Amino acid sequence: MTQSFQKVRALTGMKDILPDTSSQWETLEATVRAWLAAYGYRNMRTPVLEQTRLFTRGIGEVTDIVEKEMYSFTDALNNEHLTMRPEFTAGMVRASIEHNMLYDRPHRVYAMGPVFRHEKPQRGRYRQFHQIDVEALGFAGPDIDAELIIMLGRLWKILGLSDIRLELNSLGQAHERAAHRSALIEYLEQHQEVLDEEARRRMHTNPLRVLDTKNPAMQDMANNAPRLFDFLGAESLAHFQEVCDRLSDAGIEYRLNPRLVRGLDYYNLTVFEWVTDRLGAQGTVCGGGRYDGLIELLGGKPAPAVGFAIGVERLLDLCAHSGEVTSPPECQVYVIHQGAAAQRLAARLAEQMRDEGLRVIVHAGSTGFKSQFKRADASGASLAVILGEDEVASASASIKWLREPAIEGQPQQETVPLDRLMKELKLKV
Ligand code: HAM
């Protein structure tokens, strides 16, 4: 007796991407690769699984990601502590150190793929989601910070997005953050009565994140807290000013947001986010900034770096409004046939069409013409090629336009000799 099997479902917050949607992903990915190539960025791929300490060290012990969102486990076979990457940056920096990539020159690199965070799922927030991650490793100047942001402006244009705006801040250097930190802790200690439990817990470990609170009761306190921006010295301010000037030169608008601190600990100087009001609560489409200390922190020779990551699900959601990222049809030509000889001829001709670069589906099986036409229509093909007994006998094929309006009630159709078929198809598709 077979035991009944309880259906297995996808995990909460982890989505299946089915063919109709997946073709939009492919279109977006192709656009993104061409956009990145135009700026000299090259692809690199790092493992999904890394040692847990890479992320605790890299992202920071007292961050939401490390404290409560990582998928970590102990490998039962060798007791190693492992984590599914919650972001790309730490892994890409590890790889660049491990392979001495920064020994002789800087690198512009990117990666795309799934990342994992155990968050409460809602629209735009998933447990497995995808990032397009771009890193400029080994570059110190504000020119590259600006280039990355300008580059993003170009992508939004290519994708036809207008409802997206830039928020910008500078987190200064370590010594400036230390001076601000002492002032901030003192301020928070004076306002203990309005702090919630999480804020009290973080007050001494990550006081900057306390200001990032969504708690309405803490907004006044957060608004009046000492601002890191006011602790920046001349060099940090000059770096920031240069970024701002270059953005203005390029016609990129931005809003200075002194409260923008980002959720990962590795940043210094420039940080930025691109946000939209179109996606509800999860409106940050892209975030990034400079992280000059991370390479050294992870054991490499000190080298500056800057980068960003785009959330692909959020970007596609936004593109759904602009209509620029569409799915191509399943095929261009759908071949319909009747009878054994026509079926074999269909398979042969379809191979020739593919030699000519056409995307072709040959109807599988031997159903009647009517249901084959229905399938042809559903495939999105612009043309059907019809091979019946008459066509086989006369070495010809009929071509039917599937997308153009019928002329005087008659769908447009034409019969051509087989030796002219390829030429006609290439003209008509
Ligand atoms: P992040 O801000 O943590 O930065 O994530 C980047 C983007 O990923 C967000 O702006 C958002 O669009 C998307 N995202 C984040 N969490 C989720 C989620 N649960 N579901 C769906 N989308 C999400 C980083 O990851 C840094 N590594 C960026 C970076 C690269 N900084 C320098 N280089």
Ions and ligands? histidyl-adenosine monophosphate
Unreliable stretches:
none
SS elements, strand count? 16
As an assembly, this protein is: single chain
Mean pLDDT: 94
Radius of gyration: 28 Å
CATH homologous superfamily of the largest domain - what is it? Bira Bifunctional Protein, Domain 2
At the first level of CATH, the class of the largest domain is Alpha Beta
User: How many H/I helical runs?
Assistant: 16
How much helical structure, as a percent, in the residues? 25-40%
Sequence of strands across the biggest β-sheet: 1-5-6-11-10-9-7-8
Subunit structure: Homodimer.
Family: Belongs to the class-II aminoacyl-tRNA synthetase family.
Protein name: Histidine--tRNA ligase
Organism: Pollutimonas harenae
What can you tell me about this protein's structure?
This protein is of the alpha+beta class and 429 residues long. It folds into 2 domains: 19-172 and 232-322, BirA Bifunctional Protein, domain 2 (2-Layer Sandwich); 333-428, Rossmann fold (3-Layer(aba) Sandwich). The protein is 39% helix and 20% strand. The chain has 16 helices and 16 strands. The strands form 3 sheets. It has an 8-stranded mixed beta sheet with strand order 1-5-6-11-10-9-7-8, with helices on both faces. A 5-stranded mixed beta sheet has the order 13-12-14-15-16, with helices on both faces. A hairpin with an 8-residue loop joins strand 9 and strand 10 (284-290). Helix 5 (142-158) runs parallel beside helix 10 (234-249). The longest helix is centred in the first third of the chain and has 19 residues, at 19-37. The structure holds histidyl-adenosine monophosphate (HAM). Histidyl-adenosine monophosphate (HAM) binds at residues 87-89, 117, 119, 124-126, 129, 131, 133, 135, 263-264, 284-289, 291, 307-309, 311, 313-314.
